[in-house]
Fold:
Amino acid sequence: MAHEAEAFAALDLGTNNCRLLVGAASRGGFRIIESFSRTVRLGEGLAATGRLSDGAMDRALDALRACAERVARRRPRAVRAIATEACRQAENGPAFIARVREETGLAFRIISPREEAELAVESCAPLLREGARRVLLFDIGGGSTELAWVRLGADRPAFLGTLSLPWGVVSLAEHFGDAAGTAEGFAAMVETVASRLRTFEEVHRIGQEIRQGGVRLLGTSGTVTTLAALALGLTRYSRRAVDGAVLRAGQVDRALAEIRSLGRAGLAQHPCIGPDRAEFVLPGCAAFAAIRGVWPAEELVIADRGLREGMLMRMIRETRHR
Structure:
């Protein structure tokens, strides 16, 4: 394939997934040329051992080899690759990143929670330009949950505060085990996350800002996109329908109740969830319920975009500046 001079490639290696996005600059930001995503469970067992397991690293490497082949075919103008919570936490995270470079040629960089939040805000900025003066953005990941409290302005968003919790869908699922599927276990997961959020609320008084109006609650993660798919009554997941959707509190509550009523088998069979994600949906919903419990906004903006999109937008902007 010929060199795609205007293409850029972004890779994100998280606790649960490995993702690639190749895009080219367009008037509205970028157009997608190719995307790839695979569940690798890189953080499996990390909480117990403090290390990435051999099986998890092998799964991730298989996916990354597939990514490397796609990047080689596209020959993009620039490539950026980041790793997040699993590699941040793991004792052997840096060694694994070095192995990835040696075996695939992909140069990953382990980023901080702050940069992770900044990339999420950057990717979601097009959804935040109207009707709000401040935004509370949250990203429920595999090994952590990132929050950013942001003031919107004429130029670029200004960060008022960020928070990184060591609880994501994988870490909660592993910590609570089978109890995650019970009412008591769900309540315990909610409280585990909420107890950390209240300290952030004491500092920033976001609840008071929400009551005064002009604050948007925005979620970007598999948890909220799944909730949106159910709230919108989709029989098959559609990014076009979900990305940028604005849900009222009642819609969100009904979708949350529906997910909790399905049970493990029902979650695995649902066309918008599936067996690969079934065990992580309830932990994710518990983290979301904690966020909504502390900050009960009337509306929720849904973003089916994240770190890869943020990286693409940065690369495109930097190229234009040069």
